[in-house]
Amino acid sequence: MAKFHEDITQKPCRVVEVELKGLKRTKAELIERELDDLRDASTLSEIYTEIQKLVGNLNELDVFSGVDANITETQRGDVDACRLELVFEEKTPWSAKAKSFVQGSEAGIEGRFGLRNLRGRGEKISLFTEYGSHKMTESAIEFSKPRISSLPLNVHARVFNYMKSNSHYCSCEEKLKAISVGLMRSSAHAEL
Q1: Which domains does the chain have, with CATH numbers?
Q2: What is the pLDDT of residues 57-77, one digit of tens each?
Q3: Is this model's pTM higher than 0.70 or not?
């Protein structure tokens, strides 16, 4: 049985057709950028491995609540070719969270509101604010965009403001206003 399995998975096969279903806001080119390695696969085993990577990369975008991949034969019936059907379930374009906390003598509340994939390219923008009982406030606006120019790089920008009064301990006050911009390698891609 193991020999049969090895023979089947090592047979020459390639993906010649890809069908995308369930995309509402997401642009097809966001998905197409992730398909290059899959199209280079030449056996069923390689195709399976590349599908696993593909689904991981797509889930990392934080746009989909579900991605299903189905391999079927082509309509032409080619024995060394297959068809891939990807079925997507998109997340809502917004998210909101609120919570309260107690840390030592400090109590506070925080809230976050985010928008994702509004232009269909996987981008996210979020607003964050936190207010503490001892005159502590923090707020931020964050933006992120995945896969810059088909590279496995994500850009992340953040503008934030932090203020904390230490008047119950001393006369000092902490204030910080900053902008940060960074490029991060996508964790689903092993190499650049």
Answers
A1: 2-90 (3.10.20.310), 94-185 (no CATH)
A2: 899 889 999 999 999 988 777
A3: yes
